[in-house]
Amino acid sequence: MIARKRTAVLISGRGSNLQALIDATSESAFPAEIALVLSNVAGAPGLARAAGAGIPVRTIPHQSYPSREAFDAAVNDVLREYRIDLVCLAGFMRILSDGFVKAWESRIVNIHPSLLPAFKGIDVHRRVLEAGVRITGCTVHFVVAELDSGPIIAQAAVPVVEGDTEDSIAARTLEAEHRLYPLALKLLAEGRVSLSPNGALFTRVPHASGTLFSPGL
Ligand code: GRF
C-alpha cells in the first residue's frame, strides 16, 4: 500500500471541518492521515477535537512573533518537524506570507464558504443574502499568495431558500463543507489533482468528480 500522506490541519477556532477530516482519515483506506493539528489560537476548540482523536497538537500564538514572516517560519519549522506532506487550512484566520505559500505551493489547500471566485473574504453569508443569489456553496482550492484565489479543486452547490438567515445559510453550507473537504483531500492525496508548473490545475479525474450538489432542500 502506498504511504498515506502526512497531513497537517491548521485551525484558529471551532474545528468542525477538522472533525470531518478526522472522521474521514480514521478509515485506514483513506490516502491521507492527520499527523498534526496546529492552531495560532491557544484553547481553540478544535484542539480538543484533535487531542481527543489522539492527534498531536501544537499551538503557535501569532502574537508571540515580531512579524508575519517570523510566525510563518515557526509554523514551517513545526511542519517539517512532523514531516508533513500536505497542509489543509480549516478556519485558519491568518494570512500567510508569500514565502510560506511558495514553500508549500501545490501542497497547501483551503476551504472557503462560497462558490469562489464569488464572495471572497469575510462576512460571506451576509453578502450572499444581500446579493440575492439563489445558489451558494463552498470551495476547496490550492492556496496562492492572493487571498481566496488559486486553482479550484472541488466545489459544492448549496441552495439559498425562502426565509434564510445568515445563520441558516452558514449551517447548510457547513454541512456541505464537511462532505467536500474529505473529497478534495482524497483527490489531492491520491495525486489526482495537482498544480502544473505554470500554476494551472491538472486533474486526472472527470471534472464532475470534484463537484457536489445539494439540490431540492
Ligand atoms: C468554515 O466555514 C470555513 O469554510 C471557513 O472558516 C470556517 C471554519 O469553521 N474558512 P470550522 O472551524 O471548520 O468549524
What would a concise description of this structure say?
The chain is of the alpha/beta class and 217 residues long.
Over the alpha carbons, how many angstroms does the gyration radius reach?
17 Å
CATH architecture tag of the largest domain: 3-Layer(aba) Sandwich
Main sheet properties: 8 strands, mixed
Helix count, per DSSP?
A: 6
Distance between the termini: 40 Å
Number of strands: 10
What share of the residues lie within helices? 25-40%
Bound heterogens, unique: 5-O-phosphono-beta-D-ribofuranosylamine
Instruction: Note the quaternary state here.
Output: single chain
CATH topology of the largest domain: Rossmann fold
Give the count of structural domains: 2
Could you please describe the fold and organization of this structure?
This protein is α/β, with parallel strands linked by helices and 217 residues long. It folds into 2 domains: 1-104, Rossmann fold (3-Layer(aba) Sandwich); 111-217, Formyl transferase, N-terminal domain (Rossmann fold). 32% of the residues lie in helices and 24% in strands. It has helices at 16-25, 45-52, 68-81, 98-103, 124-131, 166-189; strands spanning 5-11, 32-39, 57-59, 86-89, 108-112, 135-142, 152-159, 193-195, 201-203, 211-213. The protein has an 8-stranded mixed beta sheet, with helices on both faces. α1 (16-25) runs parallel beside α6 (166-189) and α5 packs across α6. The mean pLDDT is 95. The structure holds 5-O-phosphono-beta-D-ribofuranosylamine. Residues 11, 13-18, 46, 90-91, 111-113, 174, 177 line the site of 5-O-phosphono-beta-D-ribofuranosylamine.
